[in-house]
């Protein structure tokens, strides 16, 4: 019998929070307790009777979980151009560092215009790729959290008003407006060039 799981519904941030710590997500998990000839269903809502949106293979690893429901039994994952719910009885979530330790790289993106921004492991180097596919590399000069709010909000930057960036990354449910995918991290990115600055709003995911 095909195992339970869940998918694709867009909810507000507070509804997805499920009472977890501000920086509990995103995390990676692996499919577990599913037979080799079976699959784990992704469902439209956190309910075993909900419509099936997609499936995960029984040996699938490094699945980014971006939120859990209020019961703590279901986790929100992305699949294709949407997101949905899997039952956490079938997901093994090993101990792992928080996203803001930057022991994993971050991949950030936005739309209107389309752009990408990546931070490498250790958050020492960043690369911005604009809608024109031109890339700009930066060496990160500073990175800090907010006093008395350790973890959930990180500021960082590089360069100066002639050539640089400033960014704020925080735990906040985020989607790009072009798909139904969800992220646990939101970025506000400010690019500085020749004394002029402009801002971009987007989402980030951890990289396996």
From TrEMBL:
Residues 1-17 form the signal peptide. Keywords: Signal. It comes from the Bacteria. This is SH3 domain-containing protein. It comes from Cognatishimia maritima.
